[in-house]
């Protein structure tokens, strides 16, 4: 590791009916929230293993979440800030800014809670790229056209995302273009799959054996597989 970085996790409390709703059906809202809870816990394990500190930008009420007690205990060991801003791009920029205020002078790398395969080694490689000469930003593409990690040598550069539509098929391309337009030199991270659908959940779980997420998927494997078969049919 060539330097410390603040890892920022943009997270939503896994409340039934509000978390991982694209998994419903085949999953029930409670099952989808259980998967989201496992995802968040695994993501926190990875983020906190990277030297430099962790900031969780959270939205939603943990008191109503699946796994509330475990999540509350786990979050007690990291900095937690409320998400703020109008729209996802604004919330991402605010999360980088809040992390910079809590940990001045450090680069930031921001992830969501949908890529449990982004373990400590993967995140450490992203952090290392930010320390390379000639690199101002690191962007990791997602297979759905979005992105799963945004690393910034200067956290204030996240303001370049203003106006970039999120959760679209071309969000990754538009984000890269916005970073280039701001004069940033961008290095790519590896491409990963976000967990959005039942098919995603089954595929990603196979990449993270032994994780909470994989165990949760295994318990719901029949339900999720039936949903995938129904879509395929």
Automatic annotation (TrEMBL):
<dbReference type="Pfam" id="PF09837">
    <property type="entry name" value="DUF2064"/>
</dbReference>
<dbReference type="InterPro" id="IPR018641">
    <property type="entry name" value="Trfase_1_rSAM/seldom-assoc"/>
</dbReference>
<dbReference type="InterPro" id="IPR029044">
    <property type="entry name" value="Nucleotide-diphossugar_trans"/>
</dbReference>
<protein>
    <submittedName>
        <fullName>DUF2064 domain-containing protein</fullName>
    </submittedName>
</protein>
């Amino acid at each position: 590791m060539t330097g410390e970085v603040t890892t920022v996790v943009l997270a939503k409390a896994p409340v039934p009916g509000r978390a991982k709703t694209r998994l419903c059906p085949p999953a029930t809202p409670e099952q989808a929230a259980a998967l989201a809870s496992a995802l968040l816990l695994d993501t926190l394990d990875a983020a906190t293993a990277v030297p430099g500190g962790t900031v969780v930008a959270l939205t939603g009420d943990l008191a109503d979440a699946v796994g509330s007690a475990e999540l509350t205990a786990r979050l007690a060991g990291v900095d937690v800030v409320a998400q703020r801003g109008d729209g996802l791009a604004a919330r991402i920029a605010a999360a980088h800014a809040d992390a910079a205020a809590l940990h001045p002078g450090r680069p930031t790398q921001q992830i969501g809670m949908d890529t449990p395969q982004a373990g400590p080694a993967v995140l450490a490689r992203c952090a290392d790229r930010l320390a390379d000469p000639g690199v101002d930003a690191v962007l990791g593409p997602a297979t759905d056209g979005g992105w799963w990690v945004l690393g910034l040598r200067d956290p204030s550069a996240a303001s370049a995302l203003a106006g970039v539509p999120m959760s679209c098929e071309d969000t990754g391309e538009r984000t890269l273009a916005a970073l280039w337009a701001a004069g940033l030199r961008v290095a790519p991270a590896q491409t990963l799959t976000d967990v959005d659908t039942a098919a995603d959940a089954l595929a990603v779980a196979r990449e993270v054996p032994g994780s909470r997420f994989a165990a949760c998927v295994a318990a719901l494997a029949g339900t999720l597989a039936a949903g995938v078969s129904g879509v395929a049919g």
